[in-house]
Amino acid sequence: MSGEVDIAIIGAGAAGIAAARRAQDYGLSFALLEARDRIGGRCHTDTDTLGVTWDRGAHWLHSAAVNPLTHMAEALGHPYLKRESFIDRTLHLGSRLATEAEKADYQRAIDAAFEAVDALGEKGLDVPVAEAHDRGSRWYRLIEHLHEAISAFPPERISALDLYRYYDSGENWPLIRGYGALVEALGSHLPVSLGTPVTAVDWSGRGVAVETPKGRVRAKAVIVTVSTNVLARGLIRFSPVLPSAMQRALDGVPTGVANKVAIKFSRDVFGLPDTSYASFMDERDPARHALSFQIRPFGQELAIAYLGGRFAEEMEGQGEAAMIDMATSALADMFGSSIRGAVEGAVATGWGADPYALGAYSSALPGHAEDRLRLAEPVGERIFLAGEAVHPSWFSTVQGAFLSGRDAVERACLAIGHCSC
Questions:
Q1: Which pLDDT belongs to residue 246?
Q2: If we measure between CA atoms, which residue out of 378, 372, 326 comes closest to residue 348?
């Protein structure tokens, strides 16, 4: 494991894989170090647990028509379902389906809510997105749920300016074989050291020295792709410590919690077309949190519940069994209690407790929108951060992570004076 390279890359998720691919293109020597026993990071397609294909992490090609990974998926033979939007969905109110008029009213409320957030951002107001919303609105629980699903934090902890800067073309196309499978394919040809967590980075002299249980790697520069939470909590020790401005930026752009519950059924219990979507808001119980589901993805007898933010964190703390019961109960209310007899298996993710992620994706806190830009600044011309948190307009996405990895290599090349970059 010990050796000397041009660039050490910490993490073999989308950003690390992109960095390694670009380093390879430029003829740079590199060490790609991954703590897990697999590549992909927060992109992980699970085909074993339930005997069907589903993504534990990222799933959609967001802004698909302009997403560079869309073309890579096509080149590698990874098909996707091209749809205008995944927002068109069944809406259930606890005891009944919503009427068409109620669905239209809900859609207007959603549109108005996000337009109000954009209005704050246009004014440069780095305030909570909660300030854009009426908590007394009939649809507020669903609006809150959408924010939590999109940003992994509740509305009062999301910067309106940061969210305004997110670029969304409106195209969200799910990958049939899974996003994790695509990211794995993108990195399949790369030399990677699995089961190699980095414990320390010494940048006190020329270059850097990266410590792992398998030995020390010396490099001219290091690209760090782990989550902001992992760095903020000091799970990788830097010597000297990172500058205070970078520490503040890591704290200002934390990684929030978003999880899924996947439930497999023995037969079609929904009566809905393949790859349908459903939202649930129980008007009988105002304390019950809203949920959204992907139903029968690509014809598989599967339902996947999505939860984020404070609710996801609370449910994860209660454990997998509680998460499964919560999601199954909502489905039973929507489609009838008899569906329980058709359940063949269920599993929940736990990204908040994952030791190598400590969350799902990032959001700038109110008052900290500019911190995301600071994350992209090099430290000592030797340390470069990459990952979804670093991209200024495609944060929380795989393409944002991928492009940030490429960009980090470009900046590292200049810093180390590699003339062929």
A1: 98
A2: 326
